[in-house]
Specification:
- The protein is globular.
- The protein has two domains: about 10-85, Arc Repressor Mutant, subunit A, CATH 1.10.10.10; about 90-185.
- α2 packs across α3, α6 (about 100-115) runs antiparallel to α7 (about 120-145) and α7 packs antiparallel against α8 (about 150-185).
- The protein has helices at about 10-20, 25-30, 45-55, 80-90, 95-100, 100-115, 120-145, 150-185, and strands at about 20-25, 60-65, 70-75.
- The protein has a three-stranded antiparallel β-sheet.
- It contains eight helices and three strands; from the N terminus they run αβααββααααα.
- Helix content is about 70%, strand content about 10%.
- A hairpin with a 5-residue loop joins β2 (about 60-65) and β3 (about 70-75).
- With about 190 residues, the chain is mainly alpha-helical.
Length: about 190
């Protein structure tokens, strides 16, 4: 059996469920009332994603009695779901992640402490830092090479992307420092 690729919405659901069992309605509220709405607040996306995660054995739904006659299905992570979430968090940051998935890197980081612990958070930050340290010089070289052929607006847009990556690197260094200080306090 070929493993199913889990989209960011699926991992967002796994991350939310590792905190506590939730109904589809509870999950929709979490998406629609927070910055996670970028992944989806739509029942047309959330419920099929829950079904796919359940079919993959990553979550399990159980019907429970609610208030009055209302029944609802609560979803929980399975051990396989916990393992998948931790593996996703621990995956090294790649150039492709930096190109297309910076938002997903931050999603991984947001769930890191609660799902995998502070050591995993620090490891993810260090992986991000290493990837950015090679990515940013490559961007500068690419801009130097192509800038003469680009219209002014395209060159400026490319520079904006470089500055965003440099800012992310600065933040990453600061976050690593915070984890290192916190680790020293705990000893």
């Amino acid at each position: 059996m070929t493993p199913t690729k889990i989209p960011a919405l699926g991992y967002a659901l796994l991350g939310l469920l590792q905190g506590k069992p939730s109904s589809g309605y509870d999950l929709r509220k979490a998406f629609s009332s927070t910055s996670m709405r970028t992944y989806s607040g739509s029942p047309g996306a959330i419920y099929p994603a829950l079904t796919r995660l359940e079919k993959a054995g990553l979550i399990r739904g159980k019907i429970e009695q609610g208030s009055g006659l209302r029944r609802r299905q609560l979803f929980r992570l399975t051990p396989k779901g916990v393992s998948e979430l931790k593996a996703w968090i621990a995956r090294p940051v790649t150039r492709e992640d930096l190109l297309w998935g910076q938002q997903e890197i931050m999603l991984r980081f947001a769930f890191c402490d609660s799902a995998a612990g502070s050591a995993a958070s620090l490891a993810l930050l260090q992986s991000l830092q290493a990837a950015l340290k090679t990515y940013i010089p490559a961007l500068h070289e690419e801009l130097r090479t192509i800038k003469p052929t680009f219209p002014l607006s395209a060159g400026l847009a490319f520079e904006c992307g470089i500055r965003a990556s440099e800012t992310l690197l600065d933040w990453t260094r600061s976050a690593i420092s915070a984890y290192e200080k916190d680790g020293k306090k705990g000893k």
